[in-house]
Task: inverse folding
């Protein structure tokens, strides 16, 4: 039986205490246990799943505490915050995932610290990573095509019918290693049904690029459903970090 992943979230400490004093270690262990349960239910190995802890608005000290607990992948939504944290924590061996909406004019700055960009959803953003006369051999980063699983065109992500074209554009840059697809489950749909649609879209991308087999899906409340539908990367925030602080 898959563990219930709709957890009660603790608040982050506001008294200057260490994040671990607020039960961080227990929350990390609980989520890891839930992931292992979901993997078993899906007939998969938890070792094949990547846990990305999303630390939006939380201090760099929390990320450092997470690293001490064995967390290796951190996710950020905002460029300025991510840039500052990556610089402050440069002594740690972390993989930084940029998962927020990205402006094309910021793409090259993001590439300086991020190892993975999970929100490729516009040709202007993809093209911003391509070689230029000023930078003819830029570093290669990993990328996911973000898919919009809703009917709202204002939401981030490529419409399902346009995914192959976006994936082809990514491959053309030569500076983005296409890893697969990413999406957020719509609020008005059962998560597993949404993730099943994402899995079918993933199959289409793999037909275009056999190495792009990764699926980034599942957050604090629905990661078990994502694992059942083939997710390889889980973006977990509040179930581990506690309630998100107010925006600075």
Result:
């Amino acid at each position: 039986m898959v563990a219930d992943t709709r957890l009660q979230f603790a608040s982050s400490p506001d008294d200057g205490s260490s994040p671990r004093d607020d039960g961080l270690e227990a929350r990390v262990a609980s989520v890891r246990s839930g992931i292992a349960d979901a993997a078993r239910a899906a007939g998969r190995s938890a070792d094949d799943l990547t846990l990305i802890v999303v630390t939006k608005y939380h201090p760099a000290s929390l990320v450092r505490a997470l690293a001490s607990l064995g967390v290796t992948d951190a996710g950020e939504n905002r460029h300025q915050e991510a840039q500052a944290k990556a610089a402050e924590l440069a002594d740690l061996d972390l993989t930084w995932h940029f998962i927020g909406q990205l402006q094309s004019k910021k793409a090259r700055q993001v590439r300086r610290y991020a190892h993975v960009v999970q929100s490729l959803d516009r040709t202007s953003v993809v093209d911003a990573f391509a070689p230029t006369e000023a930078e003819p051999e830029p570093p290669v980063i990993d990328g996911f095509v973000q898919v919009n699983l809703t009917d709202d065109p204002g939401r981030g992500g490529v419409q399902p019918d346009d995914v192959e074209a976006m994936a082809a554009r990514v491959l053309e840059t030569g500076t983005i290693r296409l890893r697969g697809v990413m999406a957020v489950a719509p609020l008005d749909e059962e998560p597993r049904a949404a993730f099943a649609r994402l899995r079918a879209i993933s199959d289409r991308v793999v037909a275009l690029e056999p190495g792009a087999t990764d699926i980034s899906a599942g957050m604090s409340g629905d990661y078990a459903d994502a694992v059942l539908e083939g997710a390889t990367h889980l973006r977990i925030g509040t179930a581990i970090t506690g309630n998100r602080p107010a925006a600075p």
